[in-house]
Amino acid sequence: FVGTRVAEVIAPSIGSRAREEAQGPVRTWMHRTLEGIHEEGHLRRIILRLTQASLPCYAQIRHGPLEYGKDVVVLLDEGGRRLLRMYQAKCGEMTKQKWREAQSELEEMFSVSLSDLQLHEAVDVREGVLICNGHANAYVEPAMQGWFGEQKRVHGWNIRFMHLDDIVRWIFKDRLVNEFKAALDELGICPPGSKIHLNGKVPEKS
How many CB atoms lie within 10 A of CB 49? Predict the structure, then answer.
């Protein structure tokens, strides 16, 4: 119907597409993309873009010499409550050494209040999030769990841990896949296995 030459040209693409449909989609591309991020600056930017997608009252990267444990902060209006969510970001697996660093930063996160200049109104609830694109290893798990519980009992601090799978579930649950892809494109990150970059260019070998 379309002619022999046209059929010869499009046959490989059709065959490739049919093979992909038969084998099923690659569902772990997001895990592998996040695992491949080794610069905390990239992880902070992705967290910022994902939080901005919910149209918060305020969202900003605060990382720097005077961050006081707050890499990214976002102010949300949830059911009439003004929730200040403060992220401390770490790349890779959470080890005992990384945990010791994060622990002091999390203490500063709550002990040093954020200026209300850009918040405009008082905050009702503060929440700390230690987030990483890996997992906590078995050696540091008991220390983290015990410390989180102690801070809740003694100080009333709400702190939780988000690992790789939590981030992926957050992206899919809140339908942020396109936001995530846009953030990757902004950073020049090509998902593993992609021959063409998101912006249509062939990625350079790193």
Answer: 18
DSSP 8-state symbol, 158: E
B/e letters for 58-90, b = 16+ CB within 10 Å, e = fewer, are ebbbbbeeebbbbbbbbbbeeeeebbbbbbbbb
> Helix 177-187 to helix 40-52 angle, to the nearest 10 degrees?
140
- 108-150 pLDDT tens trace: 999 999 999 999 989 999 999 999 999 999 999 999 999 999 9
Token representation of residue 9: 């040209």
Cβ neighbors of 162 (< 8 A, separation 6 or more) are: 129, 130, 131, 132, 170
- Judge whether 106 and 121 are in contact, CB under 8 Å: no
Taking residue 204's Cβ as centre, other Cβ atoms within 10 Å add up to: 8
Please give the DSSP secondary-structure letter assigned to residue 101.
Answer: H
